[in-house]
Amino acid sequence: MKRDKDCMRDILLDLEAEDEVDGNGTSFDPFVLEERFRPKWNSKQLSYNMAQLLDAGFVQGKRDQTGGYYIVMISHQGHEFLDAVRDIAIWDQAKSGAKTSGTYALSLIWEVARSLVLAEVKAKLGL
Fold first, then answer.
1. Residue 85 — φ and ψ, nearest 5°?
2. Any idea which architecture 5-74 has in CATH?
3. Bond preceding residue 39 cis, omega within 30 of 0
């Protein structure tokens, strides 16, 4: 299965909105979340991309015995990523910019998004 950057971003935004993701831990059941994300993502896509978020260090937690995940919290790195890509216009522009380079790596999208945000801040401050 392919990693889907849009799915990863959607999962992080959803986790951030959850009061239970507070450092004490909560369950993340891809089958339950499929109801929320249908028709955009199915449970297999949600599960695989959650595994990718854990592997990348954007989320702290582990896989449980039921096939779901026990999520402790979004890591500092995960929050930094969200802060850079929260705005959908920045996200779309960063993805487009990354694609022009011939690669579509999440780290490159993040770096392009950070550059776009920085340019926006500089423009607003007249720097």
1. -115, 10
2. Orthogonal Bundle (1.10)
3. yes
| Cα radius of gyration rounded to whole Å, the chain | 15
The average pLDDT across 62-91 equals 92
Token duo for residue 59? 């989320």
pLDDT of 4 above 90: yes
CA neighbours closer than 13 Å in the CB half-sphere of residue 69: 26
pLDDT of 126 strictly over 90? no
The residues spanned by each domain of the chain are 5-74, 87-125
* CA within 13 Å, CB half, 95: 11
Predicted TM-score (pTM) of this structure: 0.88
Average pLDDT of the residues in 8-12: 95
Cα separation, 123 vs 127, whole angstroms: 6
pLDDT in the model for residue 83: 94
Which pair of tokens denotes residue 111? 């770096």
In DSSP terms, 71 is beta-bridged to 26, 61
